[in-house]
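Schema walk-through. Below, the input block comes first and the output block second. Nothing else is stored per chain. Lengths vary across the set, and this one has 289 residues.
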Amino acid sequence: MTTGLQKNKTKSHLHSMDEQAAHEKQITGAAMQTAVAAYHADDEYPLVESELAPIGTGTLYGVGVGPGDPELITLKACRLLRDCPVIAYPATKKGGKSYAHEIVEMHIKADEKVMLGLVFPMTRDPGQLASGWNRTAELCWNELKQGRDVAFVTEGDPNLYSTFIHLARLMQELHPGVPVVSIPGISSVLGAAAALGQPLADGDQRVGIIPATEDPEALKEALLHHDTVVFLKVAKVLDLLLDVLDELGLSGKASVVTKVTSPNETVWRDARELRGRELEYLSLMVVSK
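--- output ---
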């Protein structure tokens, strides 16, 4: 039987999760506003140019290339990658290839393309985020304004926790006339279900796709309110997650997959084996009640 105290506690926890999401949105929004203001204040880029893209402007495509297996890419994505003269991809500061770049290599002739490596800042500081996003948006704009289509490749799907979301939003703020199109891709969430050989949901069951954070109450609430939870990017909080699972009596219900569907995929059907170990960045956990 649920008491009033328990109901109030649940509402409080949900409110905490809402506040955290609102805070994340506020940080992103502040960075976007700073980026747009900085852009308009820079004499190098006239304001009139940002208000209307010139006739013949290229299209910015967000292309989902799947979770890792180069064959898990749609026919439409393949066609666009072959047709687009410019392929943009997330890159490291040292010029290294991204995971998405490695996926598309077998589908294109890189020496016939402009390969545009974009470095995105890994920070929560609005000023640094604004500067980094401005720089990457302008690198794409330099190609688009010459009438060249740009395909920004992203692992998984471009509209699910993807860098493309921020790039597309900023491009539409700075250059509203640029067409922006997203091409769906297979998510690592679905790849993990296939790797584990288990369904994510059936009938009226509820599924949560949750970024793993250092907030144990948020993790607990996600588990309490869904039949299946997929926690993304669990490497940094793995032991904390295991503690929460122990507390809820779900420690035997969790599996972990790293680099799903790729040649380096590794599956642990019992996540308890991983306590105290370091995982790859591209790791997720599936908890199914």
